[in-house]
Specification:
By secondary structure, this protein is of the alpha+beta class. It folds into 2 domains: 2-55, no CATH class; 65-257, Jelly Rolls (Sandwich), CATH 2.60.120. It contains 5 helices and 12 strands. Strands 3, 4, 5, 6, 7, 8, 9, 10, 11 and 12 form a 10-stranded antiparallel β-sheet that branches. A two-stranded antiparallel ribbon has the order 1-2. Bound molecules: fe (ii) ion. Residues 149, 151, 156, 211 line the site of fe (ii) ion.
Amino acid sequence: MIKDIFKSVRLLSSEKTEKTEFKSGVIIERRHFLWLPVFAVAALTVPRNVLAAENLNLTAGSINWDDFLKECLPKAVELHKDSTAQGQDAYLFWIASMAARLNLMTVPNAKLGKFKDLNPPVEFGIGYRGVPFFIVEWKMSPNAYFPPHNHPNASVCTIGLEGEARIRNFEIVGNAPEFSSAAKFSVRETHHGIISAGRINVLSAKRDNIHTFQVGKDGARGIDISTYHGENIGFSFLDIQEKPTDAEKKLFEANWRKL
Ligand SMILES: [Fe+2]
């Protein structure tokens, strides 16, 4: 669509040709386009709702919230039956592919409540409860930090709705002690990226299972589509040292912690 807008602008612009004689009769032809302000022309030629859709990256394939659930759930139920690493990926990427088509404006707002006494505050609320997944909305205040935590036997498909946060994923390397233990163990950073409106991050029970968020100055809001692929045994926060023990492999020392 943006390409089409620029094409229209170019067609509507007037063209001026200037010829200059250069040495032995060689004529250099210069063409100048007298550009009209792009947005002035776009406003004249493109319907308002099309421009709004462009801002949201919506296409003809976009779906609203109700259609997302209706189209996503039957296949999700089938794929959820395979809880192997590959099966979880097939399940997660199906959900992610459907979420990529979602019109974010149609995601219903959950009733949010503050999580513990984090400052800047972080809020959560259940937006949808179903089978096989449930959806948690999160809202993180400007500059909030949500510490690393794991999701035992679970997968999560995170979709940004507003604002921006740094998101990092880790995996446990080797064995980790019980949540009650203060013993050190090793984790590997497997992903370091940004979550913002329309961006998606996935973790499964078998990979990238730990994540943490560092929010930017405008705050951030999003949803987690969470699914159990085994027993719910709770979860734990953890401390991860800033300096890696192996910079090349991105290994870090960690320990479980209470929040
Ligand atoms: Fe999480």
